[in-house]
Design brief:
The chain is mainly alpha-helical and 155 residues long. It has one domain. It has 8 helices and 3 strands. A 3-stranded antiparallel β-sheet has the order 1-3-2. Helix 2 crosses helix 4. The two termini are 17 Å apart. The relative contact order is 0.18.
Amino acid sequence: MGAALSAAARTSNFSLPFIVWMLIAGVIIAFIIVFCNKRIIGALVRAIIDAEATSEETSKTLSELGQEGNTTAISLYKGSSSLKRIIKTVNPGEALSEENNKKAIIDENTRFYIPEDSLFRAQKQYGSDDSVLTVIIGTLAMIAVGIIVTLFIAK
């Protein structure tokens, strides 16, 4: 594969080190996106899990969860159908239906919960906050690969 990549680099305007650095930049950007996802949305999900809000009866408001300042997570929630499959909302005075949950009007009275059947997925996807170390190690590994390719292989 390295020979094919090297041959393709020689026949185009791109050099092998340039291609490797662009691949590394893409992986680093992916690490950062995953990190931000876990930090921002994960904070809301972990707060719901820690509050044991697993049904309409045990659902909590943002202030009860300590997440009233997490406007980015709420904004991302409003536009994400995958998050709406995990986190459910209840607005007092409104009948709960799939259509209401899709439109998601969030205010200070909106209550959040994660149903029991989505709890495992939520814990796996957003549960741990150890992604800082993963991002740092992954980024350093990618930079090391770039340096090795640039200095030794691409000559």
